What does this fold into?
Amino acid sequence: MTEQLRFRVLGDSLAVGVGCARAEQTLGRLLTDVLRSAGHGVDLGVHAVSGARSTGLAAQVRAAVSTGADLALIVIGANDLTSFTLPAVGARLLHDAVLDLRRAGGQVVVATAPDLGVVSHVPSAYRAFVSQASGLYARAQADAVVRAGGVVAAVGSQLFDRFATDPGLFSADRFHPSPAGYALIADALAPYVLTAAGRWAA
It folds into this structure.
């Protein structure tokens, strides 16, 4: 029997799938389908919590490690930005979470803070500033992830540009993605998740 890949999803509401109508539309389930299509047996566990900030990652990591974590996806940063968490603080907490997962034997992929400047709630006069702050935070996170031995899913500005120009990628609250938005994010994350799964299998 093929060994099951213990795939754990940690982070905030994006990792939970707020805005989805069905579980099958969430990032965890979409990426599990990708992994299974590539031939991996997958045991999915979602430890993410809606509204979570980086301060909540330690508890999620403990829960993930207690059940075994061969591959972890962390999606975190949006709530840090809205709560004005300092980049150095959030980056340190993320670093420690990644390091703990790596020490437990897991491969770790991290989706850093999104560009909140594309959210329609943000007044147009402030969008450039919010985008700049989002980018600064994401870069601090990325540096911390690499230092801890994780992999940053560098999805690029093209993904955020799609969200900025297509309202259909947002759910009714105009903040969280719609199922179509989650599918787009999953497509962007898939190559990183598959590469990490390949390292685990090797």
In short: The chain has one domain: 4-201. Strands lie at 4-11, 41-46, 71-75, 107-111, 151-152. The mean pLDDT is 94.
